[in-house]
Amino acid sequence: MDITKTSNPLGVQSIVKGVLILILIWTICIASSLFWNIYQTYAHSYQRAETTVVTNFNRDKAFREWITSHNGIYVRVSEQITPIHYLSNLKSRDFFDVESGDSLTLLDPATFLTSVMETFPENFDTTIHKIQGFISGDIMGAAGVYLNLKPFLESAKKLSNILIFSHVLIWAFGYIAIVLYGKKTENHFNQHLKLENQLHESYDQLEMRVEQRTYELSKLSKAVENSPSMVIITDNKGLIEYVNPRFTEITGYSSHDVIGKNPSIMKSPNTDDNVYQELWGALSKGLLWTGELCNLRFDGTEFWVSASISPMYSDNEHGGQREILNYIAVEEDITEKKLIERNLILAKNSAEEANLAKSEFLASMSHELRTPLNAILGFSQLSEYDANLNKTQKENSMQIYKAGKHLLNLIDDVLDLTRIEIGKVNLNHQSIRVQDLINECYELIKPIADEKNIVLEFENYKCKCIVYADYTKLKQIIINLLSNAVKYSTVSGRINLTCNEGYEGFVKINIIDSGEGIDDNNMKKLFEPFNRLGKEGSNIEGTGIGLVIAKKLIEMMNGRIEVKSVINQGSTFTLVLPRYQESKKAVPDDNSSLNKQIFNKENSMINIFYIEDNQANLRLMQNIIDLNEDWKLNSATTAEEGIELIKQQVPDIILMDINLPQMDGIEAFKHLKEIEHLKNIPIIAVSAGAMKENINKAIDAGFETYITKPIDINALIETIRKLT
User: Fold this and answer.
1) pLDDT confidence of 654, banded at 50, 70, 90?
2) Model pTM greater than 0.90?
3) Which of 195, 333, 399, 624 measures 20 to 30 Å from 313, CA to CA?
4) Strand, coil or helix: what is 47?
């Protein structure tokens, strides 16, 4: 058997060690037995020799005693060795074992040697014996017996050889038995090793899974313990089994306070019972429930949590369903969030109330300011049609008109800025060909540029850029910038307007003037409202809020304004706007008239009915209507009166003020449209309410169009002619 080769070194080493130990023990036992038996053999031989010597000694002793009694001696010695040699230096007087092992001499002290020495003086030298340690009379009467041990030793040697042979044979049989046993053990070991290896592999896999699972559970445990959220685990009856440290930190309850109790101990009366019914209804069906709960801390104070509660199932199924073992709740403290939300709601409500009040104030201010301006601008415009006025009077009237128009622009700018700030401006994004817009702005700005002999250099028919913006607002911005360029440019100056593709996805519209420029200090104040940068005392008209409005509007269209300026050389204002993408769709203009109809009349006379409570406005409208010989005006100062008169007179077109006492214009419109023979009569809203929401409200109600006060006489005349 090869006991040094195995598939498992540790196992083989164990077997080898075991076999070697058995062989060693067996060898030691056989060797010990052999040595012990050999020792006993020689010892037995010595005992037999001693017995023989004793027997001979006892036999000779009797004879020596007899001889001694007759003063004689008897000494048996070998022919080679004298008794004197064996008696020298002897301490024991009973037995003496010669070191060579060749003979054994026994002696009995006596005085016979003295007689021998006296009798045979030639053989015994008293002096020599004295030197050897004997004194006179010490060995008187002694007798000696000599026995040859060689036959006894040879007999012991033969027996020893037999013992050696027999022990070697026994050792060989034992060795073979041990080796065979080792081989058998090795076979059993290999089988055991194979099973053990399989067991180890299974154990290692299990241990790895257990270790991985333990690690995962450890991580999960640490995550739960250190979670910033509260974690609560209950049994399937809803009794708390575990809470993490965050729970005790937030609620003030210790784990001992809540273990074994229902979470309802923290229930606040401010949480509706329906919430808990919904919660347990979902959990009883094995569903996840999420929601917000108002609870009470240990000290009775309220706190809010955002909770996520789900059931935990067993691994085994019973009847096709798994048993719910526990429920786990993960809750986040949202008390501060709820407080912020509550404050935000209060702030929002307050802001909405403030905005509503502001909007109402703006609507009221717009109406109240425009109403007298309607008379001022209206009558100043009528002066152009009065042939009785001389040139000076007409020029004075025109100055009144310009001043009123400037005041109206100032009012509009202030109202626009306020609407932007309170978020009351709605944009109508659409695709806009920049070149079309530039051409339209060119026509509008050219007359005022010609007054200062300023050259306009627009790249007509060259710009192919398309932007995505509100057409009206963008036009307002460009007109504002061009007007500023004209106002602040020197006489005989130059204004360039270009457009080009900017970086990806944007278009740049550049307005470049040759004015006096803006220094760095004023550049920082450029977009401050009502700051005219030192031009307040000049003859240049302005409000100081046009650029502010332009900047806010362009940013609402996802663009921006860039400004560069050099003193005494001019300034460049650049509008950066998003380029139109095909996926974007234009939104129709909210201010467009709905279902406009043109009525053809057989009779040339047009009957117009105007419902207006302000006498100055009625007089102005009468004067405007009087400009047309084939127009006739009837009026009423209240909606109720107007409806009754319209039923009887049936006009061709109706002009309706919106802000009327008692029944307003929109309610009057609805009453008129309910009358069968009045359904098809066009009704125009005429109001000082210039807010966009006022206009949209009237258009949505069904008015043909909306004319704001102060009235543009030419626009009003054109509208009446178009609708009749």
Assistant:
1) very high
2) no
3) 333
4) helix
Residue pair 547/554 in contact (Cβ under 8 Å)? The answer is: no
Q: What is the pLDDT of residue 133?
A: 41
DSSP tag of 677: G
Q: Are 414 and 545 in contact (CB under 8 A)?
A: yes
Phi, psi (5° rounding) for residue 501? -70, 125
Give the DSSP letter of residue 676: G
Strand, helix or coil at 505? coil
The one-letter amino acid code at 301 reads T
Spell out the residues 6+ positions from residue 239 whose beta carbon is closer than 8 angstroms to its own. 260, 261, 262
Four-CA torsion 22, 25, 29, 35, nearest 10 degrees: 130
Cβ-Cβ contacts under 8 Å for 692 (sequence gap 6 or more): 419, 424, 425, 426, 590
Residue 672 has pLDDT above 80, yes or no: yes
Sign of the Cα torsion 282, 283, 289, 292 reads: positive
**Residue 235 forms beta bridges with which residues?**
326
Question: Locate tokens 């470049």: which residue?
Answer: 512
What 3-state DSSP class applies to 313?
Answer: strand
- Confidence at residue 609, expressed as pLDDT on a 0 to 100 scale: 94
Q: Residues 328-366: pLDDT tens digits?
A: 888 888 888 888 888 888 887 777 676 666 666 666 666
SS3 content of the chain, % helix, strand, coil (to 5): 50, 20, 30
Strand 289-296 and strand 302-318: the pairing is: antiparallel
